[in-house]
Each structure stands twice: as structure tokens, then as C-alpha cells.
Amino acid sequence: MAFTDSAQEFARRFNQLLDTVYDADAMFSGSAMSADLAALRPLAESLGAESPELAQLLWLQFVVYSKRQMDDEGLPLGLRALAIRSVLGDLSTAERCQKHYAIGESALQSEEYDTAIEHLRQSAHWADQEGATLSADQKLGIREEIGYALHEAGRFAEALAHNQQLLADARQVFGSDTDQRLAGLVNNLAQNAYELGEHAQAQGYLQQRLALGQALKDDGIVLDTLFQQGVLAHETGDGALARSLLTQRVAIARASGDQDLLEEAEATLAELAEREQQSK
Questions:
Q1: I need a surface site. Which of 26, 150, 234, 276 has the fewest CB within 10 A?
Q2: What is the total count of domains within the chain?
Q3: Does 116 lie in the same domain as 86?
Q4: The domain boundary residue, chosen from 214, 240, 256
Q5: Alpha-carbon distance 118 to 104, whole Å?
Q6: What whole-number distance in Å separates Cα of residue 230 and Cα of residue 6?
Q7: CB 225 within 8 A of CB 206
Q8: Which of 44, 68, 90 is the last residue of a domain?
Q9: InterPro entries given for it (predicted)?
Q10: How far, in Å, are 120, 149, 252, 278 from residue 117 at the CA level?
Q11: 0.70 surpassed by pTM
């Protein structure tokens, strides 16, 4: 088959599969789609090891594996597809941002945290360039995922520094110190500090989060933060503070009228009492 004929045959078969995958109303078998794409790969490879056709096919295989939650299989294909596209130099700024983000997300699912950090950082870089279309909130979201990946990779000092800058920038973007979206960032900082053994710093961040929850009248944030503070107090040997914090949780849960919350809060306080008794 001549090169031009091969390219046309590839386009015909590939576009049918592509349309199906990206049709929001289409129903298809993930395993059958992966098999169809795999069957098309020899034709794509015949067009060149760095051909646009091979890059397109590999990327669609990556997308389908991601949809099937088979990121371990899909991630290498996505990485190779992106490498080919980078050599070809045919990606727009928006495409670079999107594709690096997709790779980063897949790497997180595969617990390949260093790979995730690399590509999420690339996504954040391209998100700041002319031609990108992400909102300020979406850009912060990418950076929050970088912080998460740093933490999961055990790079706690990097995560802490990253999240400290992110929190300052988020406050500026949101125009408020009491935006609910800040609760997760402050909690991440507490986790970073805790893993570094900086317990006083961790408690300080938790106190910020508690104040935020109280200002927002958000019982979910308040109860979760009191729990974390109680656990930290117990771990650092301050049993009286731990009991006080978990007793506060019981009172707030009772006032909420939510029986499930109350039962959980009472069970947590009882567990603390049992642990303290065992340690005597």
C-alpha cells in the first residue's frame, strides 16, 4: 500500500474511533475500543515512528485507558504521544496546557508522583502564557494538585513552601481571607508541617482553619479541624487539650441535630478515653 493510501486508510478508520470516544452521547465498550485502537497501531507505525498519525493514535489509547481507570497501562502511551507532538512542534499553548495536565492527572492515579509533578508544573507554566484559556481559579487548582503530588512524593519541605505561596496567591485572587476554598489549602499546610515534625506550626495552621470554619459557620470544617487538633494534641502528650477539643466536637454535633454526627463525635471521644486508660 502506498504511503498516501496508508495515511488515508488510517484517517478513515481512526476518525471513526475518535468520534465515538469524544461523543458525549456515544456508548461503547472500553475493552473493545482498546482492541480496535491496538489493531490500528501497525498501520500508524508504518507511517513513521514520529508521525502525527502515531501520536494521535497513542493519545487516544491513553484517553481510553484513562476512562477505563487503567492509568498504569495508559500513562506510557500518553507520555510517548506527547513526546512525538513536542518534536513535531504542532501543539498550541492551550493544547500544551491541557495535555500536560492530563498526563499529570494520570500519573497521580498511577502514584507516579515525580512524573505528576513534572507535568503539572508544565501545565501551570503553559496556563500562564498568552493563548491559554484557564481562569485564575483553574490555575490555582493546578497548583494545588502540584502541592498534593509533592506531599505524596514525600517532598514535604517543597510542599510546604509551595503551598505557603499558593495560599498567599489564593487569598489575593479570591479577595478574601474567609473564602471556603481556602480551607483545603490551609489543611494541606497543616499536613505538610506535621510530616516535617513541626507540630506547633501544624497546630497554628489548624487554628487558622478552625477560625475560617467558624467565620463561615461551616460545621463540616469545624468538626474536622477539631478532630485533627485533638489527634495532634493527643500525639504530643497534651491529653487535657485533646479531651477539651473532642468534647467541643460533641457539643457542636449535638447542637446540629444530626444524629450520625453526634454518634461519630461521641465514639471518637470514647476512643480517646480508652486510649488514655490503656496508656496509664
A1: 26
A2: 4
A3: no
A4: 214
A5: 8
A6: 66
A7: yes
A8: 90
A9: TPR-like_helical_dom_sf
A10: 5, 6, 39, 43
A11: yes
Q: What is the pLDDT of residues 237-263, one digit of tens each?
A: 999 999 999 999 999 999 999 999 999
pLDDT tens-place string over residues 2-47:
567 899 999 999 999 999 999 988 889 999 999 999 999 999 999 9
Q: Same structural domain for residues 210 and 276? A: no
- For residue 275, what pLDDT band results from cuts at 50, 70 and 90? confident
Domain that holds residue 269: 218-280
DSSP for the chain, written as a single string: --HHHHHHHHHHHHHHHHHHHH-TT----HHHHHHHHHHHHHHHHHT-TT-HHHHHHHHHHHHHHHHTT-HHHHHHHHHHHHHHHHHHT---HHHHHHHHHHHHHHHHHTT-HHHHHHHHHHHHHHHTSTT----HHHHHHHHHHHHHHHHHTT-HHHHHHHHHHHHHHHHHHHT-S--TTHHHHHHHHHHHHHHTT-HHHHHHHHHHHHHHHHHHT-HHHHHHHHHHHHHHHHHTT-HHHHHHHHHHHHHHHHHHT-HHHHHHHHHHHHHHHHHHHHH-
The alpha carbon dihedral of 14, 15, 18, 24 has a sign of negative
Asked if residue 162 and residue 122 are part of one domain, the reply reads: no
Distance of CA 196 to the CA centre of its chain: 21
How far is residue 141 from each of residues 66, 180, 181, 182, 218, measured CA to CA in Å?
Answer: 20, 14, 10, 11, 22
CA 76 to CA 74: how far, in whole Å? Answer: 6
Do 84 and 142 lie in a common domain? no
Asked if 265 contacts 250 with a C-beta cutoff of 8 angstroms, the reply is: yes
153-163 core/surface letters (b: 16 or more CB in 10 A; e: else):
bebbebbbebb
